[in-house]
C-alpha cells in the first residue's frame, strides 16, 4: 500500500526551512523527500508516483523555474507548489503560466501550505490517471500493424471507407475488417472514442 | 548805523580820484620836484608810554608794517619817547625840547604820529615849532581823553575805545551770582582815570557792591585778592605804578598778583591774556596799529586829510584754562566769544593723522568683523557639509540596501518561514497527540536558532542604516567586513556571484568608523557584482582580499566585470560619474570620502585576466591603538 501514499518532494536550499517543512507535512500525514537543490532532485530522479513538489524559487545553481521547465520537458505531471522568500510578481506569473499549482511566499502559514498541497495532490490524481491511460493507449497502439495504423490515421481524418480503400489499394471489405480489428485492439467501441484516443497519442507529453 | 568801513573806503576812493585829477592839472605848477616824490616817506613816531610796553610795541609794529606795505619808496622812521610814566615831562621839558629842536632843525618830517594820550599835549605845544609842515596822526587814545585834552587842529585821529560795558556784561554772564566787584589799577593819572571810569559804569549796575583799589602795593594786592570770596569779581584796569611808587608794566603787575587771586580777573586789553586775566571785551592792538598805518599811508600819499577813523571794534575773549580753574563753564560765554588757551582737540593738531588712524581702525574693525562673519559662516557651512555628508552617506547606505532588499527579504523570510513551519508542525503534532518530547525539543531548538538568525540580519541592517554620528574608535577590520559580507552573501547568491574571501592581513587593527568601512565594502562589492551582470555564471567571481601593507591594511575588491569603460581615470571617484544605466554615480565618491576621512587612499587598476581591482589602503595608526586594547569584533559571519 505504500505505493498509494502521496509523497511531497521538498526542494529548498535552506536546511532549517527544509526540515521545518518536512516536519509540518509529516505531521499532516504526508511522506516527504527533501532535496537541497534542483540538481539534487534530478539526480535522485524519484519515481513518478502520486505526489507533488514544494519548490523554493531561489536555489543555488538552476532555480525553481528552471527545474519546472526541465520536468515538464521530461513529461512529468507532478504538481508544483512554489515557495519564494520574496513576492516577485514576474516569477510568480511565469511559474503559474507554466502550470504551477500554487505560488506562496515565505513565511507561509501551515494551513495555507497544507491546503495548497492538498489541492495539488487532488490535481495530481486525475493527471496521473490520464497519464496512465495515455501510457496504456500507447502500449495498445504499439500492437497495431502498419496497415492498421494507416487505416486509423485515415479514419480519424474523416475519410469514408471507399475512399480509404482507394487510397490504400485495398478492398472495402478489407478496410472494414481492419478498422474493426484496430478498434478492438485499442479497446474502443465508438468512432468518437477512437478520435479522442488518437488525439491523446499525438500529445507528446 | 551805517557800515563804517565801506563808507570809509568810498570816501578814500573818491578822494583818490579827485586828487589824481587835481594832480594832473596842477603838475606843471607843482611845488614839489619829481625827486621829492620818489623819496621815502619820513615819519616821526612819538611814543607816549614806555617803549617796552607790550601794548605800545604791538601797535607800533603793526602800524609800521601797514605803512611800509603801502609806501611806494619805503619809509624813514624816527622814534621819540616821552616815557611819561617814569618821568614828569615838566621837569625836563626844556632839555627834551632843545634836543628835538636840534634833531629836526635839518630833518624834514612828512608825518608826525602820536601813540597814546600823553603825546597830545606835547604835539599841541611844539608841533608848529618842530615840524611845522608835517600833518598829525594820533592813535591809541581814547575818545574821552581826546575830548578832555583837546585835539590839535587838523590832526587825523584813530580813536581807541575801551569796551567797559561789554566787559561788565561779560562778568554778569559768567558770574551771575557775583555781588562784589573790585576795580583795581595803579596810581598814575591814566591808571586812576581808567579805574574811575570802570567803577562809575559798574556802580550803575545795582547788583554789585563796587570797590576801587588803586592805592595798594603788589604785595597788599596779592593778600587782598587771595582773601576774596566766591561772590566777587575783579576788573584790572592798568597799573603803571603801584602805591610804593614803583613803575611797572601793567601786564607784569597783573601777573604778580593774579596767581594769588581766588576769583576771576577781567581786563580790557588783549595783552593781559596769558598773564592772569580770565576774560574781557578787548580791543585788538595789532588791528589798531594796522588801522593807524593805513590812515598814515592815505595821508602821506595825499589821498586824505584830517581823517577821523571809526572806533576799532572790540571782541570778547576768554581764557579756557582759567575758566575751568574757576569752575566756570565756557558755555556761559556769549556767542562769538573767542576762547583762547583751550586744550587743543587732538585733531586740531593731528587732524589728518587722527582721521587716517581712525580710518585704519575702522577698516581694521570692518576687516576683523568681516573675517569673523566669514569664519562663522564657514564653520556653519562646514557643520552643514558634515551633516549633509552624514545624511548622504546614510542615504547611500539606504540606496545600497535598496539594491540588497530582495536578498535581505529572502535572508529574513527564510528563518521566519522555518520558524513558522516548525511552530505549525508542533501545533499539529500536539493536536494529533503524535508529538514526542524529543521531536518538540528539536523543533523548539530550531525555532530559537532561526529566530536568532533573523535577528542577526536585522541587527546588521540596523547597524548600517542607523542615524548616528561618525565614531572614531579602534576596531578590528575583519569581523567588520565579515558582518557586511553577511548582508552581501545572499545578494551574491541571488546574482549567481561566487565570493572568494581571503582576509590574510595579520594585523587588522584600525582607528575609525566601522560602519563606514562596511559601506566601503558594500559599495565596492555591489559595483563589482553590477559589473559582472553580463558575464557567464562561471566567470562571476568576486574576490575580496586583505593584505598587510607596510603601514596600512590593504583591501582589494576584484571582479571579472566589464571594466570602467572610457571614464577618465581621475573622474571615476567624482560624484555623478557613473557607467551604470540607472546609477547615480555617488557610490564611489562616497567611498573615496570615507577612505580619505580615515587617512587612506583608494585606487583601481585593470585585473589580470579581465575585470577591475579596487584597492583601498587604510593606515593602521598603531600609535593610537595599543595592541590588546581592542575588543574582539562581532563574530565573523563567514559568507557561503
**Quaternary structure type:** heterodimer
How much beta of chain B, percentage-wise? 15-25%
- Please give the order of strands in the largest beta sheet of chain A: 2-1-3-4-5
Runs of chain A in which pLDDT lies below 50 for 5 or more consecutive residues are none
Count all strands of chain A and give the number.
Answer: 5
Percent of residues in helices of chain B comes to 40-55%
Largest sheet of chain A: 5 strands, parallel
Helix content of chain A: 55-70%
Number of strands of chain B: 19
* Straight-line N-to-C gap of chain B: 122 Å
Strand content of chain A: 5-15%
Unreliable runs of chain B: 1-6, 21-36, 627-640
- The N- to C-terminal Cα distance of chain A equals 28 Å
Account of the protein in words:
The complex is a heterodimer of chains A (205) and B (640). Chain A is an alpha/beta fold. Chain A has a 5-stranded parallel beta sheet, sandwiched between helices. In chain A, strand 4, helix 4 and strand 5 form a beta-alpha-beta unit. In chain A, helix 6 crosses helix 8, helix 6 crosses helix 9 and helix 7 crosses helix 8. The relative contact order of chain A is 0.10. The mean pLDDT of chain A is 84. By secondary structure, chain B is an alpha/beta fold. Chain B has 17 helices and 19 strands. Chain B starts with a helix and ends in a 21-residue tail after the last strand. Classes of the chains: A alpha/beta (205), B alpha/beta (640). Chains A and B meet through helix 1 and helix 5 of A and helix 13 and helix 14 of B.
Amino acid at each position: 500500500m505504500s505505493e498509494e501514499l502521496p509523497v511531497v518532494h521538498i526542494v529548498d536550499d535552506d536546511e532549517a526551512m527544509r526540515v521545518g517543512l518536512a516536519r509540518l507535512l509529516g505531521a499532516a500525514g504526508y511522506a516527504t523527500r527533501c532535496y537541497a537543490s534542483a540538481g539534487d532532485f534530478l539526480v535522485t530522479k524519484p519515481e513518478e508516483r502520486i505526489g507533488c513538489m514544494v519548490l523554493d524559487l531561489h536555489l543555488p545553481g538552476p532555480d525553481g523555474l528552471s527545474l519546472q521547465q526541465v520536468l515538464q520537458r521530461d513529461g512529468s505531471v507532478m504538481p508544483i507548489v512554489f515557495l519564494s522568500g520574496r513576492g516577485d510578481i514576474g516569477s510568480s506569473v511565469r511559474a503559474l503560466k507554466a502550470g504551477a499549482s500554487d505560488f506562496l511566499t515565505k513565511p507561509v502559514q501551515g494551513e495555507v501550505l497544507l491546503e495548497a498541497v492538498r489541492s495539488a495532490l487532488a490535481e495530481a490524481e486525475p493527471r496521473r490517471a490520464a497519464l496512465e491511460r495515455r501510457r496504456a493507449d500507447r502500449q495498445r497502439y504499439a500492437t497495431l500493424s502498419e496497415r492498421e495504423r494507416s487505416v486509423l490515421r485515415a479514419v480519424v481524418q474523416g475519410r469514408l471507407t471507399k475512399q480509404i480503400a482507394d487510397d490504400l489499394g485495398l478492398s472495402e471489405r478489407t478496410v472494414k475488417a481492419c478498422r474493426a480489428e484496430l478498434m478492438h485492439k485499442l479497446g474502443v467501441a465508438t468512432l468518437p472514442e477512437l478520435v479522442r484516443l488518437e488525439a491523446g497519442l499525438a500529445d507528446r507529453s | 548805523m551805517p557800515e563804517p568801513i565801506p563808507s570809509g573806503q568810498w570816501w578814500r576812493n573818491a578822494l583818490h580820484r579827485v586828487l589824481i585829477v587835481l594832480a594832473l592839472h596842477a603838475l606843471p605848477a607843482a611845488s614839489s620836484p619829481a625827486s621829492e616824490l620818489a623819496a621815502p616817506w619820513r615819519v616821526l613816531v612819538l611814543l607816549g608810554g614806555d617803549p617796552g610796553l607790550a601794548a605800545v610795541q604791538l601797535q607800533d609794529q603793526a602800524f609800521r608794517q601797514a605803512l611800509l606795505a603801502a609806501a611806494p619808496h619805503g619809509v624813514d622812521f624816527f622814534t621819540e619817547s616821552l616815557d611819561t610814566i617814569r618821568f614828569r615831562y615838566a621837569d625836563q621839558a626844556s632839555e627834551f625840547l632843545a634836543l628835538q629842536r636840534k634833531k629836526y632843525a635839518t630833518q624834514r618830517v612828512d608825518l608826525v604820529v602820536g601813540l597814546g594820550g600823553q603825546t597830545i599835549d606835547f604835539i599841541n605845544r611844539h608841533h608848529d615849532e618842530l615840524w611845522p609842515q608835517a600833518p598829525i596822526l594820533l592813535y591809541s587814545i581814547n575818545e574821552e581823553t581826546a575830548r578832555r585834552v583837546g585835539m590839535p587842529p587838523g590832526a587825523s585821529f584813530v580813536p581807541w575805545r575801551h569796551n567797559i560795558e561789554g566787559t561788565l556784561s561779560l562778568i554778569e554772564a559768567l558770574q551771575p551770582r557775583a555781588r562784589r566787584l573790585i576795580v583795581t589799577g595803579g596810581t598814575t593819572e591814566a591808571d586812576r582815570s581808567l579805574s574811575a571810569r570802570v567803577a562809575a559804569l559798574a556802580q550803575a549796575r545795582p547788583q554789585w557792591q563796587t570797590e576801587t583799589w588803586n592805592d595798594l602795593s603788589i604785595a597788599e594786592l596779592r593778600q587782598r585778592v587771595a582773601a576774596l570770596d566766591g561772590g566777587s569779581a575783579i576788573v584790572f584796569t592798568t597799573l603803571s605804578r603801584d602805591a610804593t611808587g614803583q613803575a611797572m608794566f601793567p601786564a607784569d603787575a597783573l601777573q604778580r598778583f593774579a596767581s594769588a587771586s581766588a576769583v576771576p580777573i577781567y581786563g580790557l586789553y588783549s595783552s593781559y591774556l596769558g598773564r592772569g586775566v580770565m576774560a574781557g571785551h578787548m580791543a585788538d592792538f595789532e588791528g589798531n596799529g594796522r588801522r593807524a598805518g593805513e590812515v598814515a599811508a592815505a595821508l602821506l600819499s595825499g589821498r586824505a586829510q584830517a581823517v577821523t577813523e571809526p572806533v576799532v571794534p572790540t571782541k570778547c575773549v576768554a581764557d579756557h584754562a582759567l575758566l575751568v580753574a574757576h569752575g566756570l563753564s565756557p558755555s556761559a560765554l556769549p556767542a562769538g566769544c573767542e576762547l583762547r588757551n583751550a586744550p587743543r582737540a587732538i585733531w586740531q593738531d593731528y587732524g589728518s593723522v587722527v582721521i587716517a588712524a581712525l580710518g585704519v581702525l575702522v577698516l581694521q574693525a570692518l576687516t576683523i568683523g568681516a573675517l569673523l562673519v566669514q569664519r562663522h559662516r564657514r564653520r556653519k557651512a562646514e557643520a552643514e557639509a558634515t551633516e549633509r555628508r552624514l545624511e548622504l552617506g546614510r542615504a547611500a547606505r539606504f540606496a545600497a540596501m535598496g539594491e540588497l532588499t530582495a536578498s535581505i527579504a529572502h535572508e529574513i523570510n527564510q528563518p521566519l518561514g522555518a520558524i513558522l513551519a516548525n511552530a505549525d508542525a508542533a501545533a499539529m503534532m500536539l493536536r494529533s497527540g503524535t508529538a514526542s518530547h524529543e521531536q518538540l525539543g528539536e523543533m523548539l531548538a530550531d525555532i530559537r536558532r532561526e529566530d536568532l538568525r533573523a535577528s542577526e540580519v536585522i541587527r546588521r541592517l540596523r547597524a548600517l542604516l542607523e542615524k548616528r554620528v561618525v565614531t572614531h574608535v579602534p576596531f578590528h577590520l575583519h569581523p567588520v567586513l565579515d558582518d557586511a559580507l553577511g548582508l552581501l552573501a545572499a545578494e551574491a547568491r541571488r546574482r549567481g556571484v561566487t565570493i572568494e574571501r581571503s582576509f590574510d592581513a595579520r594585523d587588522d587593527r584600525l582607528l575609525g568608523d566601522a560602519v563606514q568601512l562596511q559601506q566601503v565594502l558594500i559599495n565596492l562589492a555591489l559595483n563589482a557584482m553590477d559589473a559582472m551582470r553580463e558575464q557567464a555564471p562561471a566567470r562571476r567571481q568576486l574576490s575580496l582580499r586583505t593584505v598587510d601593507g607596510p603601514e596600512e591594511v590593504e583591501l582589494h575588491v576584484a571582479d571579472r566585470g566589464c571594466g570602467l569603460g572610457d571614464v577618465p581615470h581621475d573622474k571615476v571617484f567624482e560624484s555623478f560619474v557613473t557607467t551604470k544605466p540607472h546609477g547615480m554615480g555617488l557610490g564611489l565618491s562616497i567611498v573615496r570620502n570615507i577612505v580619505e576621512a580615515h587617512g587612506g587612499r583608494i585606487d583601481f587598476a585593470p585585473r589580470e585576466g579581465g575585470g577591475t581591482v579596487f584597492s583601498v589602503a587604510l593606515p593602521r595608526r598603531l600609535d593610537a591603538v595599543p595592541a590588546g586594547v581592542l575588543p574582539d569584533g562581532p563574530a565573523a559571519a563567514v559568507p557561503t
